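Because discrete structure vocabularies remain unfamiliar, we turn briefly to a single example record, giving the amino acid sequence and backbone structure tokens:
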Amino acid sequence: MTRHPIDNRHSLHPSHQSPPSLTCRVLLLLDVQVCMLSSRKEGGVPSSETVYRNIEHILDRARSAKQPPRIIHIRNSGESGDPDTPNSPGWQLVFPTLEHEFVIDKLKNNAFAGTRLAELIPRDAELIVVGMQSDYCVRATCSAALDRGNTVILMKEAHATYDRIEVWNGGMVTNARDVESEIEAELEEAGVNLLCMSDVPHLFSDR
């Protein structure tokens, strides 16, 4: 399964003719990039096919909502030689962005660090999070949003990571799904709300 690069440069400056937006609700897509959602053989996360379908479904629902949320795509910029080196095929966003959507490039796990993300997300906003990687950007960004006072929702089966090698435990491997579950439990204890894909039909309506 190969994800074809999408040229999103046009979306860095959203159109002033954007559709109505429920400004207190934001859909945040973290590092939904070609390098992460390619097939496992091509370096993608183990659950790339499932996560791709689920994120696509959530994004479609958000765009078609009667009161659509503000949609923000976060794109990680790796170092030279990394799969997400800027302007490489792996760095590109998987899903084409619409004119009124925002694209923000980041260098750190916390998407608020060194970016203008805080300008786009009010402190009283409800933040719906999907993307990669569960134990890096997802954890760091959800934690930062909680610290700001945001209500944070993490969508189960719409975030993912890689298998983890336990360097300090004889090199044993913790599979990706267990790492994802571990992060869900950690973030839920911190105050993040976990929702399932079965909740998506009502995700962008009044609740």
Observations:
- Confidence is low (pLDDT under 50) at residues 4-13, 15-22.
- The longest strand covers residues 151-160.
